[in-house]
């Protein structure tokens, strides 16, 4: 039975209604706890811009093996999660698409970088197949003749971040979570315990547990005691949206990533004809300006990779902020401040890690036990408090 959060008191108060805050709220409400989500515009945030690649293998970086385990677990969960969410939201589709990913190289240095990534994949036993340029073009005929080869990873898929956010909003409402469209002004702390937040209009919302899921603004919440959370840096990504007219489809059949003279780009083709091209990676604070230079670089590299894109209508440009922790891995679970739980710092992997974040945090909030899979990502790793 779902217990509704009532008035200004909840069992769980989630600060931040992006996809991470929403999935924690939905899964926690399903467990029968009274949940309130606090956000002026629930469902907004980086997922509105993200391309939505589910790419634990093709986005793997050296030294991130613990994150790989979490990412693979979430990737495996995605198909069932998407079906559950569609059911729980009354039929909203998330755009989850099992399409696989092709990662290609344009010059010989780029090919060397991908060969090293392929060798790393092999050492870790990951499913990743090396292709010649001709084999890559056989899979994706729109690729430029100069493509030098690359990797085919059949297990890296995609989802539509906007549809995902909309489905999570609806699922939260249907599960009895209260969506409070307001802004937090201050964390309330009494007797060394987080007890809620004060809103900008002065209202106090109290809760048994407060979940901080405010992306790159998480550590900026006034009232947060020093040292409880590390700085979460905003890493801007500029993204383009093109439309593939019906007569040109399928333009691309799977996610295409590329190393283009050392830079990285990706093209994500949706089933509905949208083609998302991303992304820049810029550390300039909380700035989401779309710049001529950012758009130019994306179009220049995408054109070199897939010359036919110049025929397509460009329908939207945008920029979002990836929340990057000091080690680029998420913060999941209780913090050094009793009553305060973190679900933030997902950096490049917010969409991928949505299912597993919801499962792990709901388990902790309902039982007080943090599952083993989440333990390497405890916020205590930055506060030197024993987990
Ligand atoms: N995961 C894609 C990006 O962060 O650009």
UniProtKB/TrEMBL annotation:
Transmembrane feature ranges: 12-29
Pfam families: DAO
Superkingdom, natural source: Bacteria
Residues annotated as domain FAD dependent oxidoreductase: 12-363
Record-listed E.C. numbers: 1.4.3.19
Molecular functions per Gene Ontology: glycine oxidase activity
Keywords: Membrane, Oxidoreductase, Thiamine biosynthesis, Transmembrane, Transmembrane helix
Known pathway: Cofactor biosynthesis; thiamine diphosphate biosynthesis
Enzymatic reactions: glycine + O2 + H2O = glyoxylate + H2O2 + NH4(+)
PANTHER family (alphabetical): GLYCINE OXIDASE, SARCOSINE DEHYDROGENASE-RELATED
Protein name, as recorded: glycine oxidase
Lineage per the UniProt record: Bacteria, Bacillati, Actinomycetota, Actinomycetes, Kitasatosporales
